[in-house]
Amino acid sequence: MKLNVDFSSLEQAVNIMGASQIEFDITNDVTPIEPLDIKLNQGFEVNFEDIEFDTGLASYEGRQVLLYIKDHSYGDKIHRVLQDGSQGNKYHVSFCSTLESMRNKGRFDRYVVTNKLDGIFPVSGTDTVSREYIEGDTRLAVCQVCLKGINYTKFTSLGSQSERKLFAKNFNLADFFETYSSFFKYMPTGVAGNSKNQYSENWDEVSRRIREKYDFQCQQCGLGLHTHKRLLHVHHINGVKSDNSSSNLTPLCCDCHRKQPNHQHINVRHEDSKLIAQLRNEQGLNTRESWKDIYDLADPGMHGVIDLLEKHHVSLPEVGEEIQNDNTEVVAELELAWPLKKIGVAVSKDDAKAAYRQGWKVYSMRLAIKEIEQLVGSLR
After folding, report:
1. Is 22 within a domain?
2. What is the DSSP string of 251-302?
């Protein structure tokens, strides 16, 4: 039903009072917590075939998850695991060769899926000697094969086993989920640092003034966001949310913001990531003079691919390449692309399919890493 409301009297009263008009965006910053999100935070068992790996990362009903086997029934293993979680079953974050091998052997074990981010998980097991059933919580370790398969933060560059072990020990799930947030339809819940109570009570007003002061322009990439103000954040340079001194505040687009230190796990939707790439192209900001520029412009989830491409000394890719059909309609956007070769890398499976129909060969993030030699050979 359409409502016709006359606000002229109210506007006249506002003018008499001398109040100034304020521009604002009506956006929904609150992510509703669905029953499934609550359930995932607690963790529950599913069949392996119900877990999706379209992007290379573990997903359940459009949500990024990790998976592990809860049962540790073998001798006195459950006792050792509760004392030292690194002795237990590793949790998986991507479709690694270990999971692929298990699937090929027909081992469809029941895994626990969760988006719990503290690294501490409920485990159980029967002591096969005493026949005692034992439950408890422990800090499990991430699967290093998973990290290698997606080259997470240049994991493949770690030379020694001790370096990889230390990396896995310090692995932070919240950082990991943030890096790949644009790969998933639904935003992760429960990510540390997202609570607004860290900000001052007048933060909305402070943020508005800073964005206006800089004419709604990102101070890192130069992107103007007058018509998409919601994509422009105000960054606390020193990471202290209560420090609103002018020298500590600078406006950054959400993509540049999430790449800053002390940024407190900012998650960006894929649609917004694509929109920023599109706007940068329109405003002539996709300058590609070095691999650093590619890192700065690209989705963080593509950094593992970019690292390997740089090491193989291939030509610099386009970032955020729009693919058009015969009617010059944009049908897909590729995160990395070499137009002359019609080769690209995409986050979205739908984008990859649409580009394929236009004669492109498109890799997923994981496939690009797995078949890096083939990809590199095609680009030369």
Report:
1. no
2. EEEHHHHHTSTT-------HHHHHHHHHHHHHTT----SSHHHHHHHS-GGG
